[in-house]
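Running this now, will post back.
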Amino acid sequence: MGGVENPVSTDKAIRLPERKQYSSNAEPNPSKTEVKRRIERFPRVRIVAINSHRLPAGAARGSAGSVTGRRVRRKRMITTLRLNHPIPLFPGKQNGFVS
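Update: finished.
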């Protein structure tokens, strides 16, 4: 999608769609405004808020547990959508969700 890389499937992220929130990893460079414009290209999707934070880089491990460098820092976005404006996860289902 350009900016948004993949959805996140952590314990917290699995509970977020109940509150019309979606969590995803994003490229580190785009701003919240740029990501908002890209997501709102979906038909009938309107965003209320975007929260973002950078995840720690962490150590890259080599063989035998030796530290060989640092992994790239990631950005995580939590997007809140307007009521009745869900992201269509399952096309053809009511409100984009399986009943």
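DSSP finds two helices and six strands in the chain. More later if anyone needs it.
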